[in-house]
Amino acid sequence: MVLAQLGESISQAIHEMSNATIVDEKVLNDCLNEIARALLQADVQFKLVRDMVSNVKKKVNLNNLAAGLNKRKIIEKAIVNELCEMLDTGKPFFTPQKGKTNVVMFVGLQGSGKTTTCTKYAYYHQKKGWRPALVCADTFRAGAFDQLKQNATKAKIPYYGSHLESDPVKIAVEGVERFKKENHDLIIVDTSGRHKQEAALFEEMRQVFEATKPDLVIFVMDSSIGQAAFDQAQAFKQSVSVGAVVVTKMDGHAKGGGALIVAATKSPVIFIGTGEHMDQFEVFDAKQFILRLLGKGDLSGLLDKIEAVDMDQQAELLQQLYHKENITFGLYQYILKMGYQVCNVTSHLPFLLGKSKELAPEGQEKEILAKNKRYIIMMDSMTNEELNCSNPKLINGSRIMRIARGAGCPVGEVMEMLKKYKDIANELSVRLRNMKKQNPRRSDG
Ligand code: GDP
Description:
Strand content: 5-15%
Bound molecules: guanosine-5'-diphosphate
Oligomer: single chain
GO molecular function, one term: endoplasmic reticulum signal peptide binding
CATH topology of the largest domain: Rossmann fold
InterPro entries: AAA+_ATPase (IPR003593), P-loop_NTPase (IPR027417), Signal_recog_part_SRP54_M_sf (IPR036891), Signal_recog_particl_SRP54_hlx (IPR013822), Signal_recog_particle_SRP54_M (IPR004125), SRP/SRP_N (IPR036225), SRP54 (IPR022941), SRP54_euk (IPR006325)
Domain SRP54-type proteins GTP-binding: 268-281
Helix content: 40-55%
Order of helices and strands: HHHHEHEHEHEHEHEHEEHHHHHHHHH
Number of strands: 8
Structural class: alpha/beta
Organism: Liquidambar formosana (Formosan gum)
Number of domains: 3
Pfam families: SRP54 (PF00448), SRP54_N (PF02881), SRP_SPB (PF02978)
CATH superfamily of the largest domain: P-loop containing nucleotide triphosphate hydrolases
Distance between the termini: 41 Å
C-alpha cells in the first residue's frame, strides 16, 4: 500500500467513526481494526500496530468519559497522537555544532539515495551558513565519484575523491584531513553501499568509521522497501552506531510504512527525501508527517478540508502565540506556512490580523501568496539563532547576503521580507497584548 492510500484508509476509518450515530465500543473497535489493517498492508510491523491499537484503547476509555465530551474528537486525537508516538523516538540526536569541525558519515544500501542525500544534506546546511564539504569514499560503485562531483559542482560545494584510489579508508581520511585544514565546519563522508547486507560492506564501513571518527552516522533508507527496512536498519545499527536516519523517496510510490518501520529501530528520522532535486529535502517532523498523511497538512487535497482543519490550526497557532513573549522569525515563518497551506494567512486568521484588508487588499491575494512562499524559502536559509530571534537588527548586511544567496533571490527582496516581518510582528504583539488583557486566564494554560 502506498503512502497516499495508507493516509486515505486511516482518514476513511476515522471519518466513518465520526459519522456513527452513537460512538460505542464496537464503533471504536471497527475504526481501530480498519486502521490496523491499513498499517499492516503498508508493511508496518505487527508489534507496532498492536501497541498502537492497545494504547488508543487505554487512552480512550469510553465508559469513563464524562457525558457531553466530544468522544469523536477524543478518539481522533488519541489516534493521531499514537501515530505520532510511533514515529517520535523522543531521543535527542546530534546536530552539527558551530565553532568546530563536524564529521558526518552516510551509510546505506546501494540505490537507497545515499549519494543524493549527502549533497542534499550539505546543501541544506550551506543555505544556513555552514561551510560543508563532501568526501566520496564509495570506491565500490563505478560512477559514484562522478555523481557526487556533479551534484557538488551544481551546489557549489567543495568535494574530494579519486578515480584511481581503491581504498575507501585512505580516501576518507585524506578528504577529512584536507577539509579540516581548510576550516570546513561540516564534512560529509559518503560510503559504499552494496546490494545486500554483506559482511564486506559492514567491515569496510566499520573501518571508515574507525579512521574518520564521525560525530554522527546517518543511515539512509529507501522508503519503498517496506518491512525489509527494519532488518536493514537493525543490521546497520549493529555494525556502526547509527545516530539518525534519513528516509528517501517519500514522494511517488513509497510504501507508506517506511518511516513508521524505521521507528521500530528507535533511531530518530531527521530528514525525508521527497524528490530527486537538491531542495526536495525536508526536516522530519512526526506531527507534520502524520497530519500530511491524513491529508491535513498538504497543499494539495487540503483545500476541500479547510473547514475541518482551519479551526484546529488556528487554535494551535493561537495557543503558540499565547505562550510567546516575542514573535520570532521562526514563528513568522510558521504563520506564513500555515497561511500558505490554508490559502491565505490574512483571510484565514482575521481574528489575529485586524488589518487584514490592508495586508491583503482584494485582488492581490495571489501575489501575496507567491510572496509569502518566497519569504518561507528565505527563512529556510536562516540559522537557528536567526529563527529564534525577534530582532531584525541581528540580520545584518552579511547575513542578508547569505540568506539571499541561499534562497536564490535579490538582496532587496530579503530586506522587504524583514520589513514585512517587522510590520506583522508589531501588529501581532499589539493584538496579543490586548487579547491577554481581555482574557488573562488563557495565558495560564
Ligand atoms: P546511492 O546508490 O544510495 O548513492 O543512491 P543514489 O543517490 O545514486 O540514488 C539512487 C536513485 O534514487 C537516483 O536516481 C536518485 O535520483 C534517486 N533518489 C534519491 N533520493 C530520492 C528521493 O527522495 N526521491 C526520488 N524520487 N528519488 C530519489
